[in-house]
């Protein structure tokens, strides 16, 4: 075999291998995309229309590793079945900072494969408190999160007292780092640590106007969404502060707020009062129950058959009669 013939055969082999690799890659991408499209045999039964992914309302963000380990294999299988109803995965308690880099990247890439964003959760509180607000350390944290593949950076201060202008500055820093800033605001001092009712009552609460004013400031600073802390409102309280929920939903754009609602009674309340397209944060174990409620196919005595949306046309709806 002469040199020219060998070079020709090598080019053919490389071209063939490239085509197979591209085909395989496309197949995997199509498979992941198709996993988020309803292919149920029961599509002839009516259910609520929900906006398709990627959507800007009706978002479901789920908790990732913290109370329970959420592995790459578990997450992949979970999202293969239910990814159509999940928009984001959020770490809690800074758990991601304990993971080996390659395992963390694998978990984030698995979420991305299913068209799902990944949020840091509110670990920036630890960064702020341990560095005394050192901008260089904060910038390094933002850059590291971006390089690891995170999409959303939550900016919470349940344990800290931060001037509003500094908080807004963090929003701008986060956006400049290429991450979506998501400030978390609430009415409860000391929120975020699973404190007892007595401890939270002792710490005291803020006026709802404080929450709303800061949320508006952060949106003006470039926040892509506001997370509403549940402690002091529906979590670890003797009586729910539904007045706070009403004040928030009346004052802020619906598509710009997300409520923590990791309890079936709480997310049912939000769906009842805001409709099936409320933006909610729940535990990963609650995906199915929330999806059934949003779609209006099941519920409790107070919600069964009562959650309704208006369809977007026969071609986009989920009620299709099969041909005979």
Describe this structure in words.
The protein has 324 residues and is of the alpha/beta class. It has one domain (60-295): Aldolase class I (TIM Barrel, Alpha-Beta Barrel). The chain contains 11 helices and 8 strands. It has helices at 3-35, 72-82, 101-113, 124-131, 135-148, 164-176, 197-203, 208-221, 242-251, 264-274, 287-295; strands at 60-63, 88-90, 117-119, 152-155, 180-185, 226-228, 257-260, 280-283. It has an 8-stranded parallel beta sheet with strand order 3-2-1-8-7-6-5-4, covered by helices on one side. α9 links the parallel β6 and β7. α2 (72-82) runs parallel beside α3 (101-113) and α6 runs parallel beside α8. The protein is globular. Residues 1-36 and 314-324 have low confidence and may be disordered.
Reconstruct the topology from this structure.
Elements: H1 3-35, E1 60-63, H2 72-82, E2 88-90, H3 101-113, E3 117-119, H4 124-131, H5 135-148, E4 152-155, H6 164-176, E5 180-185, H7 197-203, H8 208-221, E6 226-228, H9 242-251, E7 257-260, H10 264-274, E8 280-283, H11 287-295
Parallel strand pairs: 1-2, 1-8, 2-3, 4-5, 5-6, 6-7, 7-8
């Amino acid at each position: 075999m002469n040199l020219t013939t060998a070079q020709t055969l090598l080019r053919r082999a490389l071209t063939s291998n490239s085509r197979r690799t591209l085909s395989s890659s496309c197949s995997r991408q199509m498979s992941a995309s198709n996993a988020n499209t309803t292919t149920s045999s029961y599509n002839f039964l009516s259910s609520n229309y929900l906006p398709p992914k990627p959507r800007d309302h009706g978002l479901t963000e789920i908790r990732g590793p913290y109370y329970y380990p959420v592995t790459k294999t578990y997450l992949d299988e979970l999202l293969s079945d239910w990814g159509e109803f999940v928009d984001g995965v959020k770490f809690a308690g800074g758990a991601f900072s304990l993971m080996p880099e390659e395992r963390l990247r694998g978990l984030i890439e698995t979420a991305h494969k299913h068209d799902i964003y990944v949020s840091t959760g509110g670990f920036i509180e630890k960064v702020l408190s341990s560095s005394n607000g050192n901008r260089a350390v904060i910038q390094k944290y933002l850059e590291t999160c971006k390089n690891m593949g995170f999409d959303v950076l939550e900016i919470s201060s349940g344990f800290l007292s931060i001037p509003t202008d500094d908080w807004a500055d963090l929003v701008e820093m986060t956006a400049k780092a290429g991450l979506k800033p998501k400030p978390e605001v609430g009415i409860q001092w000391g929120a975020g640590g699973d404190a007892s009712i007595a401890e939270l009552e002792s710490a005291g609460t803020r006026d709802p106007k404080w929450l709303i004013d800061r949320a508006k400031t952060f949106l003006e600073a470039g926040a892509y969404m506001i997370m509403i802390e549940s402690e002091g409102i529906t979590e670890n309280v003797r009586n729910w502060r539904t007045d706070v929920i009403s004040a928030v939903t009346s004052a802020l754009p619906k598509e710009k707020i997300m409520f923590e609602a990791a309890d079936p009674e709480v997310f049912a309340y939000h769906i009842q009062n805001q409709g099936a397209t409320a933006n909610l944060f729940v535990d990963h174990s609650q995906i199915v129950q929330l999806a059934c409620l949003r779609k209006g196919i099941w519920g409790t005595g107070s919600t069964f058959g009562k959650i309704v949306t208006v369809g977007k046309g026969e071609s986009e709806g989920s009620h299709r009669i099969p041909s005979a």
